[in-house]
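An instance follows:
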Amino acid sequence: MNQIDQMNETNQINQMNRLMNTFAIGVCTMTLWAGLNVGVSAAVPSGVELQPSTAVPGATVSIGGKGFGTFRSVQVNRVTVSGLPALIQRWEPDLIEVKVPSQAQSGPVEIVIGKKKLSAGKLILMQPTIAAVTPAEIESGHTVLITGAHFGLTAGPRDPNTMFGVNDVTIGGVVVRPRHWKDDRIEVEVPANAASGNVMVRLASSDPLPDGSCCAPVRYTVSNAVPLTLIPSIRVDPLSGPVGTKVVFFGRGFGAAKAVGDTVTFGGHLATIAQWSDSAIVVHLPMDAESGPIVLTVQGRERTVGAFTVHVPKVTAVTPSAAPIGTLLRISGEHFGFYSESGATPYAFTDFNTGENRVDIGGVRAVIYRWQDDRIDVWVPFSAKSGSVVVYRGATKPNPDGSCCAVKDTLKTEAGVFTLLMPKIDSYSPQSGGLDELITIKGSGFGTFLKTAEHAYLGLNQGAYTRREDIELGENVSRTEVLFSNVAAQVMSWTDTEIVVRVPHRHLYGFGKRNEFFNELATGPLIVRRGSWDVQPDGTCCTPKKWLTMEAGTFIIEAKGMPDPGYFNSNRPDADTNQ
């Protein structure tokens, strides 16, 4: 066969192939139109699959199959959803991923490869719908649950500046980032800058530009709106304590003054209201309070603002169990509360109202030195007696309107038994001595040496919060001392049975003032004394210091230990040198 015959045969074969292709295309076209009449699924070419078949705007869908070829350009390779171009995320010979356009409607998905079009099936578009927002009222900082359908499987990327946008939730127009996101439920934390308003779910989507490239500005598909009411947050401090505890409510919108029907209850028991303002409410835990919810009623509207735990004071130890007056007695335990919290102000240090909080020793009120929740220190008063140590906490029961008071009472806590010791001197030696000699006094019930000196009245710490010009130093600042002829000596050691002091210098030189100078003080009484106070009859502190004085006997200061007389004649050693 010559070359011309071969060419003719080849042309005939190509012509027959073209006719067969035309016939195949016609058959496919007829099948496609027939499929559109009876159902979209019949129009999908074999091997092409759309996943998922339902989606929300902005979601990513995938198309699996074969023969898609390689991606060349956005003009050659395109995908449309109900006729609108979709943003292509991925294109491989067997897989295509696109984002559903924001304005798309339910309809066919088509793949365009140059002049070739393939049908991928029908995509059904779903709209986000909120069924409920729980709770309907909430404070800022708390979590709200949004239930419904078609929110999408994820909120998308975390970066709000991404070109594809981020699904989010708005509350009163404020964008809120979700904590958890599922197709049928979303959890969000209400931010501090949110306000009462509608809750809406927004699904972000970014469409391609007219030329098919990325990307048009992000657009949102918005759900239906459900109202949410934000109520002012209320802080309750503290949330635990014994009866009588001052509890303060910090917030806003309480009203300038307490109205009829405004109440506070602890475990269902009405509390005594000490102060009411628009931003703060001060109450005291009533005598009959029980652990349970704290319910605030304002303008007829009840609101549970927390849970309160009522503690019962408990004493674990009292030390020492026996001592003389002026001793610092320590009561250890728990849940004693705070001392000055019976006032009406939100802060205890501004009023120092102690109410009925106190400690009694043998029925005599002690002087409070320190009162903490786990420790109380008191000075044994001058008039103390042996007997029970009792811790009292004052509390009330309010009138039906919350005002004070239907009943005023105290909660008594037995701490133990205290024995008051009377100091006794048995002996002292030597009974005479020179300057700086050590004198030993033996006996019993001397107690401990008080290193704390009260340079002013006990209310000095209270006066520190308000400018005071009437604070005066006390004349006697010590409360445990030994006197030689009524002048204090240096204490070297002090125990309950023995005191050692040093003979002072000052007596031999005398003391006084012009025309009233006493120069003979070598002989005089040796005295041991302890000081303390009593609480005033009205409960305030305190009476002037009172002294318990014990005389050991007469002591003679001998002319020993005096400076070398030569010192006074030559007090400049450098004058006798040749240097």
In short: Residues 3-38 form the longest helix (36 residues). Helices lie at 3-38, 460-463, 506-509, 565-569. The mean pLDDT is 83. The CA atoms of residues 79 and 111 lie 5 Å apart.
